[in-house]
Amino acid sequence: MSPDHDHPRRALRIGVAGPVGTGKSSLIAALCRRLAGELRLAVVTNDIYTTEDAELLRAQGVLAPERIVAVQTGCCPHTAIRDDVSANLQAVEDLERAHGPFDVVFVESGGDNLTTCFSPALADTQVFVLDCAGGDDVPRKGGPGVARADLLVVNKTDLAPYVGSDVALMLSAAAARRDGRPVLAVSLRADDGVGGVAAWVLAQHAAWSAGTLESEDPGPPAPHHAPGPAHDHRHAHAH
Amino acid sequence: MPAAVLSLLLADSRTPTGGYAHSAGLEPAVATGLTVAEVPSFLAARLETVAYVDASFAAAACLAASLRARDVSSFVSRGGTQTTTARALLTLDDELAARTPSAPQRSGLRQLGRALLRVGERLWPDDPLLEGYLRASAWTPRPVALGLMAARAGLSPREAARLSLYEDAAGVAAAAVKLLPLDPAETTAWVAASAERIDALAEAAAREIEPPPVHEAATPAPLPFDASEPPPARPTAPPLPATSTPLLDLRSLDHERLPGRHFVT
């Protein structure tokens, strides 16, 4: 579809961030399973404490084991994806050189807090993952990932009735924070529960291949409303 | 550019070179029972051994990169065949590889060196030596990369060695507060207490790589052992140091298999 002359040489790098236990690894595993027939995929994980995430992904057999690598972050998961991305960049480059080419490389952050987000030097586009079990007030609390990640996923909606979380409230609070940016409610236990996120990944990859991908740095220092005419309402407000 | 300021930049852990993910062998040492009280001796032992080797290589790489087009074969201990600075740097790669028997340590040095050179590419975008070394070296170990960067920053081999030694001690101190119950002011004081030793070792490392003095015409060279043989075309330097640390090497192998490790090395 895209003309050969502007086809990017390297893979699209999709960052997946979010607090501990919100289901980042499971989401990536589901995406790999769903998209492996359409895209050439690889994964870099940033475990805080172990290589458990990488092992979980390998154990699920969704990708060849050599396409999944773990990066040690010296107890600094935030630093590794934001302030000093050198180790992650090398891991992605080494993966591409050894086993590429790939269409998409997922970089999974170590579970961190609400201020975690990827440097644009590492991720071309990024997903922030919350879950219903973590409390339905989290979207209201906000933070750069909640407000400005390219996609916000509210995961584990199947658990909401059991933990007293109000999914509709989470989605409306997120929408209020996000100024029209996309939010998806996801239950990986439902049939094709990952379908919406997979469609987003395919759309991001298509835009990347066409050279039209636009991604906004959520960065903690960025003001909620950027001053001046640069503030871009990319989507019509549905609310 | 003022070299003294750039020296601070190269020593600053905020410069994005990935150092925060390395413990200089402290994590595996703690995993095998090293206590809080023993960390200062660990730090000091590293300075005298592996850090001194690294510092000598940083100094040698700095000298090679500073000499540019001049003959640089004289300080390469294997000597003789290198005709360009790039070849000299690649020979230093080989020499250091021969002193780094542990694969995880080689991999760690590569990661740190590449990250450093990534910053270097941004600071000196069109530097042919930096570019050539990045392209030609399969390894880019940190000491050689640091020496090259130090040369570009305008630093002397001795300053390159000092940076390398300081980074080693500061790396142990930074990792110690993550691994053990310690006050970071205390670990910083350990680094400060090593200052005199770091300076002395930096001077010694710079001396290791000095080409021997060229004899002047007025003071003829002593006769070679076999007077019928012509004197060597150029002076050869003594080998670079090889103070080995078998325990650190062995532990690094176990460390790679340690579940729940925080650090790369």
Write structural notes for this entry:
The complex is a heterodimer of chains A (239) and B (265). Chain A has helices at residues 24-35, 52-60, 77-81, 86-99, 138-141, 144-148, 160-163, 167-178, 195-210, and strands at residues 12-17, 41-45, 68-70, 104-108, 125-131, 151-155, 183-185. By secondary structure, chain A is an alpha/beta fold. Chain A is globular. The N and C termini of chain A lie far apart (34 Å). The A-B interface holds A 48-51, 71-76, 79-80, 83-87, 89-90 and B 14, 16-18, 20-23, 111, 114-115, 118, 175, 178, 259-264.
List strands and helices in order, with pairings.
The complex is a heterodimer of chains A (239) and B (265).
Chain A: E1 12-17, H1 24-35, E2 41-45, H2 52-60, E3 68-70, H3 77-81, H4 86-99, E4 104-108, E5 125-131, H5 138-141, H6 144-148, E6 151-155, H7 160-163, H8 167-178, E7 183-185, H9 195-210
Parallel strand pairs in A: 1-4, 1-5, 2-3, 2-4, 5-6, 6-7
Helix pairs in contact in A: 1-2
Chain B: H1 3-11, H2 26-31, H3 39-48, H4 50-67, H5 85-98, H6 103-123, H7 128-136, H8 142-152, H9 157-179, H10 184-193, H11 195-208, H12 246-256
Helix pairs in contact in B: 3-4, 3-9, 4-5, 4-8, 4-9, 4-11, 5-7, 6-8, 8-9, 9-10, 9-11
Briefly say what this structure is.
Chain A is α/β, with parallel strands linked by helices and 239 residues long. Chain A contains nine helices and seven strands. In chain A, strands 3-2-4-1-5-6-7 form a seven-stranded parallel sheet, with helices on both faces.
Characteristic terms for this protein:
heterodimer, A: alpha/beta, seven-stranded parallel β-sheet, 7 strands, globular, B: mainly alpha, 0% strand
Q: Rg of chain A from C-alpha positions?
A: 17 Å
Task: Bin the strand percentage of chain B.
Answer: under 5%
SSE order of chain B: HHHHHHHHHHHH
Shape of chain A: globular
- How many distinct helices of chain A? 9
Strand content of chain A: 5-15%
Distance between the termini of chain A: 34 Å
Taking the alpha carbons of the first and last residues of chain B, their distance comes to 33 Å
Please count the helical segments of chain B: 12
Helix-residue proportion of chain A: 25-40%
Rg of chain B, please? 19 Å
Largest interface: A-B, 19 and 20 residues
- Assembly type of the chains comes to heterodimer
User: What's the story with the biggest beta sheet of chain B?
Assistant: none
